[in-house]
Amino acid sequence: QICLSLVKLLFYLAHSPLGSIALLDFQPRQFVMVDGNLKVTDMDDASTEELSCREDNDCTLDFPTRSFPLKCSVAGKCEGINEKKNLFNAYRYFFTYLLPHSAPPALRPLLSDILNATGDLRYGINETLRAFEKVLHLYKSGLYLQKRPLLLKDYISLKGFRTVEGEGHKCWPSYSHLGCLLSIHSAEEAAAICNSQLHCHSFIVTQHRTWTGRPLASFQSSWTDLVPDTNAVVYIKRSASSGERL
């Protein structure tokens, strides 16, 4: 969400009515999330000036660890230098820390492609935004899910109930540091996740949703009491349950 919002912001800056705008003091502390969207807190160090040049050799975009040769346009300006400066700063301050860690396994190669392409400045902001929107579409639609055996049939579902959350079962990446709370596309995906966790024996699908509209599921590893909850459905592995317990 943070990276996509940042890319949309940089897309606007690259195509603004004032021309391409560079953020000269590009640091994470210069941004804040407002209602799910990334905002710039300080525009004092923004500039629409692009480096003047006479030849291509005048157009080198330098960073502490990388340098990129750019073209000198017929107008005597280094082509796209403001856009590329913003994009590489987004890569080194945001993408490298946020993109590789929290996506479903099937989407990680696509995010790795974005990471590598922006890190080498092979993508401009237009291509980067299209790549992010493709990943978002796959994520929201569930099209990233590979065909696999149906696992939900191995679970007993109890509508209107949830389990009392136990302690000790944690996972990464979790929306809660107290347990294992993950976003899912469907209960079928939740069953696959539970089956992949060594100690998981049940999960609860709630009506709470993420910014993409995906429901949240809480995964449990120990027996706890069932309590009424009209907004939840608990799924318990048949192998972990017994008629007496239920």
From TrEMBL:
Residues 2-116 form the FAM69 protein-kinase domain. Keywords: Kinase, Signal, Transferase. One of its GO terms (biological process) is skeletal system development. GO terms for molecular function: non-membrane spanning protein tyrosine kinase activity. Pfam families: PIP49_C. Residues 1-22 form the signal peptide. InterPro entries: FAM69_kinase_dom, PKDCC. The keyword DNA-binding does not apply. One of its GO terms (cellular component) is extracellular region. This is PKDCC kinase.
